Amino acid sequence: MSEFKNTDVEQFHGVWVFCEQRGGALMPTDLELISEGRKLADELSCELCGVLLGDKVEGIAKELGGYGADKVLVCESPLLKDYTTDAYAKVICDLVEEKKPEVFLIGATNIGRDLGPRLAARLHTGLTADCTHLDVDVNKYIQFLSESSTLDLSKQKFNMEDRNLKMTRPAFGGHLMATIICPRFRPCMSTVRPGVMKKAEFDQKKADACVIEKPAFSLKPEDIKTEVLEIVKAAKQLVDLTGADYVVSVGRGISKDVKRGIELAEELAAVLGGVVGGSRAVIDAGWLSADHQVGQTGKTVHPKIYVALGISGAIQHKAGMQDSECIIAVNKSDTAPIFEVADYGICGDLFKVTPLLIEAIKAAKAAK
Hints:
A hairpin with a 2-residue loop joins strand 2 (21-22) and strand 3. The protein is globular and about 70 Å long. The strands form 4 sheets. Strands 7-11-6-1-4-5-12 form a 7-stranded parallel sheet, sandwiched between helices. Strands 14-13-15-16-17 form a 5-stranded parallel sheet. The chain is of the alpha/beta class. The protein has helices spanning 28-44, 62-65, 85-99, 110-123, 138-148, 204-209, 258-272, 280-284, 315-318, 350-367, and strands at 15-19, 21-22, 25-26, 48-54, 71-76, 103-107, 127-131, 133-135, 166-171, 176-180, 188-192, 211-213, 246-250, 275-278, 305-309, 326-331, 344-347. It has 2 domains: 9-223, 3-Layer(aba) Sandwich (Rossmann fold), CATH 3.40.50; 246-367, TPP-binding domain (Rossmann fold). The chain contains 10 helices and 17 strands.
């Protein structure tokens, strides 16, 4: 193995994605990150590689190729069957030190949030946590700023030759967006919020062409300081906002009758076959639980239809839903920012408008 110097940035090439599996099944975040990693690898003119750890998981590796991976590094061992920080960190750090990837992406899941900091500390590099946007190409980054910030770009100076990974994440409770780079150390590491990156279409030809590599690695029981005795899955019902095709969200506009406002949202969501979401104001007020939150500090959604009831449309909320296929907004104020991103806007009282929407949808369904 060649000597690992994380400051010798010219020696690092390639984009890696940690592909988390649970019970021998890939996580949705893996496919989102592989799809995003493909774009970054193309901009860097390098290889995209998935990193898959577990026991008897080679059979699911080819699927990653269908979403853009050129190669998947598969490390199999009974000691890797269940996630432990010690085992996964050792194997991955050894691989990074040997093969020297330039960029390493990890999903900001419970496992990813645990693994990412440990890897960064051992590799003596930086880690930008909970990212919502990634760029390499400066022109694309400038385009992103023009669409998502209030900066006067005419007064900004950009190094058009900058090939560092530009990692953007919410800061100060979501009130600001910060872009962070890691110019002196490699790999550039980032955990990425689930649901923010769009999954590419699956391509069977790419899956068939994907190379599966099983690198040698060293892992002994004594390398692991903890033992998994039992895995207990909690029977806890959480709202699947990121996977929903229809989302009905409520905002501060329901304040005059919170119970009725939520009931209307639930009824509309039921008619559409969707789920209920909420703005940060609703979650902070305790009207809905945190798993309902949509926005920079909540979940990012891409449904077919997003209905915003009584939501003014703060930039933090819009960032979490503006890529929905169709946005319908109901607000009493005709100057509400939510109308800037809405495909259909209704200026009116949500308590009067929502029942009409429900009845219209029911009638349309009955007429089919």
